[in-house]
Amino acid sequence: MSSELVVTEVLGPVAVITLNRPEKRNALSAELVVDLGDAVEVLDQDPAIHAMVLTGADPAFSAGFDLRNLGTELAETRARRWEGEVRRLGMLPGHATPIVGAINGPAVTGGLELALGCDFLIASERASFADTHGRVGVMPGGGMTIRLPALIGVDRARRMSLTGDFVDAHTALAWGLVTEVTTHQDLLPRAIEVAGTMASLDPVVVAELRKMYDQIGDLIGHEAWRVENRWSKTWIQDRFDQQRLAAEADAIIERGSSQS
User: What does DSSP assign to residue 152?
Assistant: First the structure.
């Protein structure tokens, strides 16, 4: 179930999934997203796997979508990718197995949305978080406007989205974006330890608890996911500026390096 871009390791009842595109700071190419989805689905269907950990190959968790890839993507390719209704809520396929996000470095825009798809996050002291949708002129479509304000409050979420500024790991902990901050070397062992605790519980009970959280939350905002997704598609189809995106790509990386 491993690929060149997504590496999986099974440690008893816990599976570790690692985004493996470090030379691009684990930017989300179309191939990486597909491989990640496949890995999650395969592991979720394995009765021996009771918990997962999602992390990135150092130095980043994920710098978000590959801006150059997005900017040059053929219109017909994009149209095929968007055919029909949204098939998932957020960046990950539906799954019953809990996922701990082990955030080892910057999690930016689409990378932050991917992190927000985990059940909860543990961060390295090197982690940082930013939403740069506004800087590249793209509307979020992976749950940013739903999950981020739910975790840190709408004003802090607006501040992150409307400035594009980075938030460090300890600020993220104070705001409630992550549940714990560790030293960098302790991050993965700690995430595996916590995942192991979940894996020790009855998986049927865990799946039912997760379903309760999802469905009760849906009573407040399930339709919000679909509205955000449709909004994002419409914006890119009608108003997306590829030249601006290409010009901003390097500037965002430099800004993140200076703020993290």
Answer: H
**When comparing pLDDT for 89 and 85, which is higher?**
89
Using the 8-state DSSP alphabet, how is residue 126 labeled? T
Q: Where are the alpha helices (DSSP H) in the chain?
A: 30-44, 67-72, 75-81, 110-116, 133-136, 144-152, 154-163, 169-175, 187-199, 203-239, 242-259
CA 192 to each of CA 105, 122, 182: distance values in angstroms, whole numbers, following the listed order: 17, 10, 13
Cα–Cα dist 194/172, whole Å: 19
Per this entry, what is the length of the chain?
A: 260
Distance CA 79, CA 254 (A): 32
Q: How far does the chain reach from its first CA to its final CA, in angstroms?
A: 33
pTM, rounded to two decimals: 0.85
Q: What does the angle CA 20 – CA 164 – CA 247 come to, to the nearest 5 degrees?
A: 75
- Secondary structure element (H or E) that encloses residue 120, with its range: strand 120-124
| pLDDT surpassing 60 at residue 80 | no
Per-residue pLDDT tens digits for 112-121: 999 999 999 9
Residue 208: C-alpha distances to residues 13, 146, 212 (Å): 18, 22, 6
The full set of domains in the chain, from first to last, is 6-185+199-203 (3.90.226.10)
Q: 176 φ, ψ to 5°?
A: 95, 10
